[in-house]
């Protein structure tokens, strides 16, 4: 009876351990989900609408999300093309002997100069604000990255504890039940494979986060840094009133304006992506099975995981109840005769599980006179006859439990106790508690700041780009004002 119960217990735990990583921690799940979907043009499909959901692994989602910043990309291209056409027009006119210039408006000189000063100051202030907001966004994105990576790290730690335990149980039971040891060995290998998958996912996610956030931040620093230098240089040239240098300033500002508009589109894409990610996390928090993140962070169905955990608790509970109600069976298994049972007395093993129907794990609920299943070898050690002692000496000292029986009891009790010790980890893995807790933390504490930060970054970048357009036009007006000389003579000494 006891051997049958042991066998059933470990086969059930084996089934749980093998099925858990594939259903709860697999990162290649293709289970259908019905989360929030989008209707956005997809450049990779000839601008047909993308009707899918949030999925960073899907190039069509990324393309459609990036296309939301088309207003910035388009204006950057049109502005650059317009500047090229204007430059060619001026050069052609100059080479033909006709100098394109505006009529002299000397009485408007102070007004234009004042306008340039105001626009340049606004551009300097806006650039500073954009840099500060970009830095703030980087910090918040880094915090989000750490939270996401910690999800995988905590899962790896839990799997590592389960792996070490199953390996230990495998060695303990090998002399007494090779079949279960072999099964546990395959379980350990399955856990190790899944841990490698999770590690690769963590590394790729971390690299992707770093590449995206640091590339964006570096682009903002480079473009806006050059913009600040150019704006300061334009102020110096304005005060010196060195007209040949105006054309260089206009050329630099024109290119920087195009880059600013491109970053405006990219920042809108970042805001869209952050909003989509937070919306997906909100859906995941409400219903993991119906969220688009369910395919990337899959969890066992709640009803299935609840039944599975309850079944494990029921099996261990029934096993200990059987031991407590049939102590004579245990004594018989250990080779203790009926005469010696009275010496040992009635032994009660602690049952850490409540009764039906929930079988809740409550390790603190054990009575004072009960023995933990893991402490059973300590209890039997007082009555165990070691191999070094003779039979007569053992009988004289009241040690009548054979060493081999003690070793077997130690192996089984230690194995069950080890399984009880990792039971909380099994609960977390089966119910994806770690994933849900981290998702709730992101939704509650990080989503709103990231949404506000990315939207503010886009708004400031848009404002800077508009200011730069007006500023460049003002510089063009000032450069062409009263210029009657051909362009070919501008740089002659």
TrEMBL record:
Protein name, as recorded: Transmembrane protein
Q: Which residues cross the membrane?
A: 76-96, 108-132, 219-241, 248-270, 456-477
GO annotation, cellular component aspect:
membrane
Q: Per UniProt, which keywords does this protein have?
A: Membrane, Signal, Transmembrane, Transmembrane helix
Q: Which organism is it from?
A: Vicia faba (Broad bean)
Q: Which residues form the signal peptide?
A: 1-26
């Amino acid at each position: 009876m006891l051997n049958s119960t042991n066998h059933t217990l470990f086969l059930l735990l084996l089934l749980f351990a093998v099925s858990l990583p594939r259903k709860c921690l697999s990162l290649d799940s293709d289970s259908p989900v019905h989360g929030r979907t989008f209707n956005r043009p997809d450049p990779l499909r000839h601008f047909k609408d993308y009707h899918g959901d949030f999925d960073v692994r899907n190039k069509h989602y990324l393309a459609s999300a990036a296309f939301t910043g088309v207003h910035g990309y388009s204006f950057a291209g049109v502005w650059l093309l317009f500047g090229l056409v204007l430059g060619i027009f001026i050069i052609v006119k100059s080479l033909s002997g006709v100098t394109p210039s505006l009529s002299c408006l000397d009485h408007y000189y102070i007004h234009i100069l004042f306008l340039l000063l105001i626009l340049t100051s606004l551009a300097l202030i806006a650039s500073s604000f954009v840099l500060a907001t970009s830095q703030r966004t980087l910090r918040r994105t880094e915090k989000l990255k750490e939270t996401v990576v910690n999800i995988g790290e905590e899962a790896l730690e839990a799997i590592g504890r389960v792996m070490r335990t199953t390996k230990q149980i495998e060695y303990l039971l090998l002399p007494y039940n090779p079949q279960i040891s072999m099964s546990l060995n395959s379980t350990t290998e399955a856990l190790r494979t899944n841990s490698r998958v999770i590690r690769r996912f963590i590394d790729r996610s971390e690299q992707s986060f770093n590449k995206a956030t640091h590339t964006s931040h570096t682009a903002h620093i480079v473009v806006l840094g050059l913009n600040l230098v150019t704006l300061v240089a334009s102020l110096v040239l304005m005060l010196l009133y060195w007209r040949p240098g105006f054309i260089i300033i206009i050329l630099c500002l024109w290119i920087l304006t195009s880059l600013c508009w491109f970053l405006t589109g990219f920042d809108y894409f970042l805001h869209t992506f952050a909003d989509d990610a937070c919306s997906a996390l909100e859906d995941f928090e409400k219903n993991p099975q119906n969220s688009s993140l369910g395919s990337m962070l899959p969890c066992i169905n709640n009803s299935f995981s609840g039944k599975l955990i309850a079944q494990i608790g029921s099996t261990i509970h029934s096993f200990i109840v059987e031991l407590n109600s049939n102590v004579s069976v245990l004594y018989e298994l250990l080779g203790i005769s009926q005469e010696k049972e009275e010496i040992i007395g009635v032994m009660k093993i602690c049952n850490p599980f409540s009764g039906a129907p929930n079988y809740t794990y409550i390790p603190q609920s054990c009575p004072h006179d009960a023995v933990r299943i893991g402490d059973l070898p300590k209890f039997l050690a007082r009555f165990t006859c070691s191999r070094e002692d003779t039979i007569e000496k053992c009988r004289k000292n009241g040690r009548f439990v054979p060493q081999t029986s003690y070793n077997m009891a130690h192996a089984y009790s230690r194995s069950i106790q080890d399984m009880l010790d990792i039971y909380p980890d099994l609960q977390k893995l089966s119910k994806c508690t770690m994933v849900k807790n981290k998702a709730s933390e992101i939704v509650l504490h990080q989503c709103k700041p990231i949404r506000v930060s990315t939207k503010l970054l886009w708004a400031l970048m848009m404002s800077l780009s508009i200011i730069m357009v007006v500023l460049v036009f003002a510089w063009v007006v000032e450069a062409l004002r009263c210029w009657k000389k051909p362009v070919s003579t501008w740089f002659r000494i």
